[in-house]
Write a structure and sequence with these properties.
Keywords: DNA-binding, Nucleus, Transcription, Transcription regulation. With about 110 residues, the chain is mainly beta. Helix content is about 10%, strand content about 50%.
Length: about 110
C-alpha cells in the first residue's frame, strides 16, 4: 500500500538512531500516545512501535524502533519520514536517498 499522508519527516539525530525516535510536536496522523503503530516494510515484515508520551509531554517511538533502525542501517543526519497509510494505525517508513536539485528521491524501507 502506498503512503497517503506524511506524518512527519526529520533528520535523524544520534539519539534517534541508537535509542528512541523523537517525534516532533507538530506531527500529524499519529496515535495519541502509548498505542501501537504497525509499520510494514517493503518486504512485508511488520514492526510494531509504541508511540509513547513521556512525563515532559514529548513523544517518541519505542519498543522495536531501535531494532528497526539497526536492521535498516539508519544513520545520523539521514532524512527520514513516517507516513500514515490512511488505515488505522498502519504506517510506512521512508528514507530520503538523493537530492536532485530541490527534489528528494524517497525509498520505502
Amino acid at each position: 500500500m502506498e503512503p497517503q499522508y506524511v506524518s512527519f519527516q526529520k533528520y535523524l539525530s544520534n539519539r534517534d538512531v541508537h535509542g528512541n525516535l523523537e517525534i516532533p510536536n507538530w506531527a500529524d496522523h499519529l496515535p495519541d500516545g502509548n498505542e501501537v503503530m504497525r509499520v510494514t516494510d517493503r518486504h512485508g515484515t511488520i514492526y510494531e512501535f509504541i508511540a509513547s508520551i513521556r512525563a515532559d509531554g514529548r513523544r517518541s517511538l519505542t519498543r522495536d524502533w531501535r531494532g528497526f533502525a539497526l536492521a535498516k542501517g539508519l544513520r545520523t543526519n539521514e532524512l527520514l519520514r513516517i507516513c500514515w497509510l490512511g488505515n488505522g494505525n498502519e504506517y510506512a517508513v521512508q528514507v530520503g536517498l538523493q537530492l536532485h536539485g530541490p527534489y528528494i528521491a524517497w525509498e520505502t524501507l
